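Re: that backbone. Tokens:
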């Protein structure tokens, strides 16, 4: 058997393989620890953490839909202090990297949580710029290039860990936002976050979600995600964590060939709690079967 090397380096952080979890779909790993050997994952990306607890949106906030699901959970979380005291010690039992998704309603909130988490024992940040900016009337930080660059550059002043910036797909040109994040000082990018979607209950004659609209995720969005990862990998020099509808190792390889260094598994965790470890094994077997020693050999090979 040839020696294969699944390790990847993202902004100076060495992961034993390219597979992580998508924020908000794996909690802090506790719920999955009985199904998944967390030691097998390259990293665990945890649910969004804010400087103070957020209560999230009203229910109902989950709806199934063809090829995926809608959610408007609203980044409910118990806040940074709780996370530091409870979740980091749990995750540090495992041989995996910890990526903390940071969220905020204002630049001040983002900077505050980045500063607090910089003192904590974590490996990387993922800056969720898909949050609505309350001081700008609810416009999402990540849909305006100027605003995206500003929030990234401000948070960068407080972030003492490598910072991945998570891009929203709800824009006309994803490369514009990617270049703005790069200009602001992003160390890596992750994409895509959820598409905006809606479902209506035709008997009650009203939207199924209390919030009316929500984030659409799952297998149906994969072609959009692959296309955006491909475009961004050609437009910037930053390493990319690709996500959006990954539910098999074949999907993961597709993202890597499109230009991703890492891959994140999200909605698939709900339908198959073993998805992440099955994808890790599948990537290894694919490399073995095809004589690939290092993932760099196939990364971004689509011209």
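Recovered sequence:
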């Amino acid at each position: 058997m040839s020696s294969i090397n699944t390790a990847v380096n993202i902004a100076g952080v060495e992961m034993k393989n390219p597979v992580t979890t998508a924020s908000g779909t794996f909690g802090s790993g506790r719920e999955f620890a009985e199904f998944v050997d967390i030691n097998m994952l390259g990293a665990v990306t945890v649910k969004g953490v804010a400087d103070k607890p957020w209560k999230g949106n009203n229910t109902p906030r989950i709806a199934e839909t063809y090829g995926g699901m809608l959610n408007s959970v609203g980044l409910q979380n118990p806040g940074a202090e709780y996370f530091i005291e409870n979740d980091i010690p749990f995750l540090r039992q495992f041989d995996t990297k910890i990526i903390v998704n940071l969220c905020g309603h204002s630049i001040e909130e983002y900077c505050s949580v980045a500063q607090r988490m910089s003192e904590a024992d974590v490996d990387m940040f993922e800056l969720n710029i898909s949050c609505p900016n309350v001081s700008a009337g609810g416009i999402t930080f990540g849909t305006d290039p100027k605003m995206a660059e500003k929030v990234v550059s401000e948070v960068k002043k407080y972030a003492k860990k490598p910072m991945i910036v998570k891009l929203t797909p709800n824009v006309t040109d994803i490369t514009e936002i990617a270049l703005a994040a790069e200009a602001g000082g992003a160390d890596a990018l992750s994409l895509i976050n959820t598409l905006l979607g809606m479902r209506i209950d035709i008997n009650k004659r009203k939207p199924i979600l209390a919030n009316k609209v929500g984030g659409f995720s799952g297998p149906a969005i994969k072609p959009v995600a692959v296309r955006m990862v491909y475009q961004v990998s050609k437009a910037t020099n930053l390493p990319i964590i690709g996500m959006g509808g990954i539910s098999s190792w074949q999907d993961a390889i597709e993202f890597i060939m499109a230009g991703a260094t890492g891959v994140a598994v999200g909605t698939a965790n709900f339908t198959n709690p073993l998805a992440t470890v099955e994808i890790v094994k599948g990537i290894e077997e694919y490399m073995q079967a095809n004589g690939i020693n290092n993932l760099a050999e196939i990364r971004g090979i689509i011209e």
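The chain has a mean pLDDT of 95. The longest strand covers residues 97-102.
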